[in-house]
Design goal:
266 residues; alpha/beta; Rossmann fold; six-stranded mixed sheet; two-stranded antiparallel sheet; 8 strands; disordered N terminus; SAM-dependent_MTases_sf; Meroterpenoid_MTases; Methyltransferase domain-containing protein
Length: 266
């Protein structure tokens, strides 16, 4: 497992799973469940309805690079940011010229939805697990963005570390915020009972938050960075986030998705 200190050199935890045939694995189960998935593919990507399923299943390169569960269940077909209660504010602020960066953008599904909803693409940035531009390390490539970001979207990323690793990651994120009013929003895997879990399949320890523990994390981060944050968080079922009821299968009891919006006050 990558230690918390190692995580600041390169943020991706040691959870690589290499599989040659995606259809042979239980977590590879891409389904075209959502009508909005089809709508976005047709209206934004201009893929006819009768060709959408074939198109989606031909996109296997992400699985070949990193066989994450999110890839296997087709999370990249489900825009998540638009489900956050503060999404109308996010969209309005970006339309007014504020800058948003998507950390761990995956295949850019949230950004496509933002542009589809009217956000200007020149105010939107995205990064993922490129060593040269790793937002939770002291990356020279990202140095020009420090202190320049109004809104950071980070979905299904922070949960990959234990408590200490999440604190370090949050501190790095804060360094990119412009100041009071800046927001950090997204969602991640959580649990109704806040706890550290070790997934046998990945052999890594992760901290699962509920709203109370997530607020405590940001209180700690605020105290240690001389900032102050107003935290909102909501527990969601997998079905509420447009995933399948079985997408959390194999995880611990009480597992759910925690959606959050953290606003800088000082």
């Amino acid at each position: 497992m990558a230690s918390a200190s190692d995580a600041l050199n390169y943020s991706e935890p040691d959870m690589q799973v290499q599989l040659t045939e995606p259809s042979s694995h239980s977590i590879y189960q891409i389904l075209m469940r959502s009508s909005f998935r089809r709508q976005l593919l047709e209206n934004y990507s201009h893929i006819p309805p009768e060709e959408q399923s074939k198109h989606v299943h031909e996109i296997v390169r992400p699985w070949d690079i990193r066989a994450y569960p999110c890839t296997g269940v087709g999370a990249w077909l489900v825009p998540q940011l638009c489900r956050n209660p503060v999404y109308p504010e996010i969209l309005k602020r970006v339309q007014a010229g504020e800058v948003l960066i998507d950390v761990g953008c995956f295949l850019g599904h949230d950004l496509r939805r933002l542009v589809y909803d009217g956000a200007p693409s020149d105010k939107i940035y995205a990064i993922d697990i490129f060593i040269e531009a790793d937002i939770v390390s002291e990356s020279k490539a990202l140095a020009p963005l420090r202190g320049k970001i109004d809104i950071i979207a980070i979905t299904q990323v922070i949960h990959q570390w234990d408590w200490e690793g999440q604190v370090k990651a949050a501190k790095q994120l804060i360094g990119f915020t412009k100041g009071p009013g800046s927001m950090i929003v997204g969602n991640q895997i959580g649990n109704s009972k806040a706890q550290e879990v070790t997934l046998k399949t990945l052999v890594v320890s992760m901290w699962r938050h509920n709203p109370e523990s997530f607020a405590k994390l940001w209180d700690q981060v605020g105290q240690e960075t001389g900032t102050r944050w107003e935290t909102q968080a909501w527990m969601r079922s997998f079905e509420e986030m447009a995933f399948g009821a079985k997408d959390g299968a194999g995880m611990e009891d009480g597992v759910a998705i925690i959606e959050f919006a953290v606003k800088r006050v000082e």
